[in-house]
């Protein structure tokens, strides 16, 4: 029955465009062959996380906004639409959705085979992670597990049911997953990866189990899983396997960070400019004309230009103002200085633009006018102009620091991307305690662990939810959690550039908390309905 179900899923035109490349009834007995199969599962999301997923998560939040340059980077609105919450089912920034279904299929090949449990269990952890992303981003999602009775793996299931399925899977496999970290286990799912995923599921439980995405109200929602969330956070904390790290904040995300044994990383996606490509955060963030700068603000001349189509919103930039906060160095704005690529700190050397003038980036973003009379700003395409004045609009992130040894190779960086961090577990437990109303000194101490290691002012009171929300923005910038946080804390419909109510192109419907289903998925699954608030796909 399992094999039959898999064949039906793979050949039925309702398969998320995912062919099953092999249908083993007996798994290869070669260790090399098995581990190669597992590597394919672990790395399934590498390209997606390295660019498109990041674009969708960050641009739809207040973290970053799209800009275009007199026609450059408009790309049919693929980048401006997320910033305006005006997504369409054809936007390239959500073209990664089919990758998740394919990942579940790859995992099922192992799970339903005769492979050893040491392979099946981490495959189940990865399948749960794929399901989590589908549920988080789509709402209702297929449960692509042929062992679950009473469902068709080709159909979308209610979001709350998917959440309960993920919880059940994780609770079942956590005791059987490896407790080894680092070394050859780096980048592979283990017990702690699954626990961190479970903590994410629990802290968002009220979001995922709401009657519909638009009916979640952060002010009144009751989360029945707060005690469970605190418990799983405690297990991670008490494991003794992780800490905030012996290194400064900036080095955790710098070039070749895999060599540093970052104790804060519970689970990360490894990248290498030659052997594990796909990380292109520098391309999106770097100053448009950075190839002309000698040196660039990264402390060296770069061989490739910057894309610069993602820049920081003024509202988010305001978070980086705590005195002494080391995280401030991950943001450049105002007068820009050349960084030392060894220390990853700014020097006293001024960065200069192609005209030889000091490079100055403005926090506010000034759009071009669409008419000769200068009466209407380009709120649709977010055009800032393709010149020195346009290029300096908005502060920029240098958190995932760029070096030319990587960037010259198709702009592929060797900065590993953390997916789950110990710092997140500390703030998640603090948040759960505050939401319970039993925070006290414990939540304050957890919060101040974060402040202390980045040398920011310690909080002198029990943190509020707003304190935690803002701190999460500072701590996890560019790590793909801001959209998730904004929805949970009730800020996704806030005003932030260019998502202003005065902008006729901005959308404030609560249905935009999830993305539209990408058109290719709908075309391949004719029984599926587009998410509420979005038009149906063309045939």
Automatic annotation (TrEMBL):
GO annotation, cellular component aspect: cell outer membrane
Family annotation (InterPro entries): SusD_RagB_dom, TPR-like_helical_dom_sf
Family annotation (Gene3D superfamilies): 1.25.40.390
Pfam families xrefs: SusD_RagB
SUPFAM superfamilies: TPR-like (SSF48452)
Tagged with keyword Signal: yes
Keyword DNA-binding: no
Cell compartments where the protein resides: Cell outer membrane
Similarity annotation: Belongs to the SusD family.
Record-given protein name: RagB/SusD domain-containing protein
Organism per entry: Segatella maculosa OT 289
């Amino acid at each position: 029955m399992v094999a039959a179900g898999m064949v039906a899923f793979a050949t039925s035109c309702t398969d998320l465009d995912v062919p099953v490349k092999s249908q083993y009834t007996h798994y290869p007995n070669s260790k090399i062959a098995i581990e190669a199969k597992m590597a394919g599962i672990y790395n399934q999301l590498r390209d997606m996380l390295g660019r498109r997923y990041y674009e969708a998560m960050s641009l739809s939040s207040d973290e970053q906004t799209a800009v275009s340059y007199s026609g450059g980077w408009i790309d049919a609105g693929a980048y401006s639409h997320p910033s305006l919450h005006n997504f369409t089912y054809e936007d390239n920034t959500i073209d990664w959705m089919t990758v998740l279904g394919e990942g579940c299929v790859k995992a099922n090949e192992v799970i339903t085979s005769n492979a050893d449990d040491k392979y099946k269990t981490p495959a189940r952890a990865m399948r749960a992670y794929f399901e989590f992303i589908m549920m988080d981003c789509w709402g209702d999602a297929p449960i692509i597990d042929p062992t679950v009775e009473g469902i068709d793996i080709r159909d979308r299931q209610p979001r709350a049911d998917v959440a309960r399925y993920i919880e059940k899977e994780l609770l079942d496999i956590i005791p059987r997953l490896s407790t080894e970290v680092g070394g050859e286990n780096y980048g592979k799912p283990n017990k702690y990866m699954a626990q961190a995923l479970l903590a994410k599921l629990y802290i968002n439980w009220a979001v995922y189990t709401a009657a519909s995405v638009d009916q979640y109200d952060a002010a009144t929602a009751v989360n029945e899983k707060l005690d469970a969330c605190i418990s799983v956070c405690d297990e991670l904390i008490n494991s003794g396997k992780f800490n905030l790290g012996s290194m400064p904040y900036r080095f955790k995300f710098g070039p070749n960070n895999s060599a540093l044994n970052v104790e804060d990383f519970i689970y990360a996606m490894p990248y290498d400019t030659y052997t594990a490509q796909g990380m292109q955060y520098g391309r999106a963030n770097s100053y448009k004309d950075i190839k002309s700068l000698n040196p660039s603000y990264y402390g060296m001349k770069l061989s490739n230009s910057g894309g610069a189509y993602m820049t920081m919103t003024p509202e988010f930039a305001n978070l980086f103002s705590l005195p002494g906060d080391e995280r401030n160095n991950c943001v450049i704005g105002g007068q820009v200085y050349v960084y030392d690529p060894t220390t990853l700190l700014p020097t006293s050397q001024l960065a200069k633009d192609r005209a030889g003038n000091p490079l100055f980036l403005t926090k506010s973003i000034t759009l071009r006018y669409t008419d000769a009379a200068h009466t209407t700003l380009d709120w649709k395409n977010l055009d800032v102009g393709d010149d020195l004045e346009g290029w300096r609009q908005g502060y920029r992130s240098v958190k995932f620091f760029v070096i030319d040894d990587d960037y010259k190779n198709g702009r592929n960086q060797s900065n590993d991307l953390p997916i789950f961090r110990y710092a997140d577990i500390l703030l998640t437990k603090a948040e759960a305690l505050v939401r319970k109303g039993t925070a006290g000194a414990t939540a304050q101490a957890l919060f101040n662990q974060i402040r202390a290691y980045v040398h920011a002012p310690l909080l002198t009171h029990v943190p509020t939810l707003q304190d935690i929300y803002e701190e999460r923005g500072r701590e996890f910038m560019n790590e793909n959690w801001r959209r998730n946080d904004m929805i949970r804390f009730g800020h996704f419909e806030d005003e932030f550039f260019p998502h202003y109510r005065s902008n006729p192109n901005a959308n404030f419907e609560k249905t935009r908390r999830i993305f539209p289903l990408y058109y290719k998925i709908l075309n391949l699954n004719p029984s599926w309905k587009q998410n509420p608030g979005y038009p149906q796909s063309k045939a």
